[in-house]
Amino acid sequence: MKLNTPKLMLTALALAATSAYAAEPVIGLITKTETNPFFVKMKEGAQAEATKLGAKVMSAAGKTDGDNAGQVTAMENMIAAGAKTILITPSDSKAIVPAIKKAQAQGVMIIALDSPTEPANATDALFATDNYKAGVFIGQYAKAALNGKKPVIATLDLFPGHPVGAQRHNGFLQGYGLTSLDAKSNELAKPAEVVCMADSFGDRAKGQTGMENCLQKNPNINVVYTINEPAAAGAYNALKAAGKEKDVLIVSVDGGCAGIKDVGAGVIAATSQQYPLRMAAMGVAAGVEYAKTGKKVSGYTDTGVTLISAKAMKGVDSKDVKTGTDLCWGNK
Amino acid sequence: MNSFKDKLPPMGTLGPLIALVLACVFFASQSDRFLSTQNFSLILAQVMVVGVIAIGQTLIILTAGIDLSCGMVMALGGIVMTKFAVDYGLSTPVAMACGLAVTTLFGYLNGVLVTRIKLPPFIVTLGTLNIAFAITQLYSGSQTVTDIPAGMNWLGNTFSLGGATVSYGVVMMLGLYLFTWFALRETPAGRHVYAVGNSPEATRLTGIPTEKVLLGVYVLAGLCYGLAAMLGVARTGAGDPNAGQTENLDAITAVVLGGTSLFGGRGVILGTLVGALIVGVFRNGLTLMGVSSVYQILVTGILVILAVATDQLSRKGAR
Fold this sequence. Notes:
Order of helices and strands of chain A: HEHEHEHEEHEHEHEHEHEHEEH
Largest interface: A-B, 31 and 35 residues
Number of strands of chain B: 2
CATH superfamily of the largest domain in chain A: Response regulator
Subcellular location (chain A): Cell envelope
Shape of chain B: globular
Radius of gyration of chain B: 20 Å
Oligomer: heterodimer
Strand order of the largest sheet of chain A: 2-1-3-4-5-11
Keywords (chain A): Signal
Strand content of chain A: 15-25%
Distance between the termini of chain B: 10 Å
GO molecular function (chain A): carbohydrate binding
GO cellular component, one term (chain A): cell envelope
CATH topology of chain B: ABC transporter involved in vitamin B12 uptake, BtuC
Number of domains of chain B: 1
Shape of chain A: elongated
Number of helices of chain B: 13
Strand content of chain B: under 5%
Largest sheet of chain A: 6 strands, parallel
Helix content of chain B: over 70%
Low-confidence stretches of chain A: 15-21
CATH topology of the largest domain in chain A: Rossmann fold
Number of helices of chain A: 11
Protein name (chain A): Sugar ABC transporter
Low-confidence stretches of chain B: 1-8
């Protein structure tokens, strides 16, 4: 057998690359699913920051929202692969805690992104949107936009018992100045002004079905709160079919690039924008810092919410569609 | 064999209709908005996607098979037709034809694996369920396709008929049901589907090409999922890579609620429509009542058990 020089050189290069890799801090990112654009963006944000700081990101996800076992497996595999920091969006806020404790016992820093664990101090830190505040913003906007008219509200919620769904819903009602519950509650408040509530599962088609049924229940609905922008797009479809799209105000939360486009197109009046890219980038930066200095981050960091609307309302602080597009989900 | 009992319509056929009527009576008593032609046309529009998927599913279940991939194949079809139109600028009919071709191809793939390699349909479609899902996610980058050409929304447009606003998609769904009903009842091919479901061995011995019948059923089912994709795209005005996740099991639920036997060979296609409507009526009615969607899931679960139990008991009775 003849010696193959190019092959040898490649092998040497590969070896060099591997050893260079080993020197890089490894940071794990575990999202709820692989397919939600929100988490896709989060992954992009983590990757970009890691490239900048010379770190390596491993990512994994549960199979479906709520897949705790999948997240635990991913966490174990990442620790085995040498990750010293793991960023996680917990699918099940309680069930993930024992696995986190085990990881921390091995010297791994765990940062929750987007949603907290229960108890919140089970992780070293939390970088997330204040969902209640996000709701308050769109509630205040809707109130100003209705300008004293009596609100007849439909809410297209996530599904029962989900803290993020409850916080946005209750925050919205609070912002509107209606009877509501506080940020800790997992129940959905239902003051008299809310004439219809439907579960949209954050899904376009189900948002549409929910809105159709709500219009059936009360054709005079003039404000629609939606858990996210796909549900809002579905609601708009239903309103358009009924010829009511001009008379009904839709507000939402998320601030995804497609959602902001819908704000520009007049489908959604206002949305509270959150920043998954920023959450992930901050998490990676904290992980690199920990790898270099051994200093951990702690506590809750609000990653910010901005109200985006095509039409500013007096007394409500909002940014325009252009700003929203520039920042959508934390670009730049 | 010619007892009085045989002359009665089997419980499996009447049961679903009774359940649907009872549900309607209940919701009409709870909400004065429930009972209107407008509301019923709305429910029809809400079930049309699942309804058309369920036609393909019924054909497969009639042959004692099952198709777990139906919803995911539909989602793939929807993504293909919208992306082909938006990204490559293909005309609406061509893009839709491409979507139909992809779903039909998946049906063919399922059929080949079931008939040629003799794998159990449950396993085959469990595999293709994952394959179709992954391709959908990879190809779309998990992003919803928006700004689709207006022509793609046509099936979602409505016309008024009496007090109701009926969408063209609903007309298409009802047409497909009538066509399938006729084909299953009146054509030799239709009778062969029942025969294969009842006893594939006996059917083969009488000279009917069972494998061809089975393959044809899977191909037609794939075509149905493509047609459902057209309806889904038209209804929501977008290509949604996460569509089909609940429709997958909803379609099987509709077939079972409609009285088609999971053991094959017995069932009426119109029952499937009734089954789909039961699910739609509960979703609509409970929202009108202001009740959480979890109750709908609870009731659906109970009804599915009841439907299968009825089928089993009537089978025992017939023995």
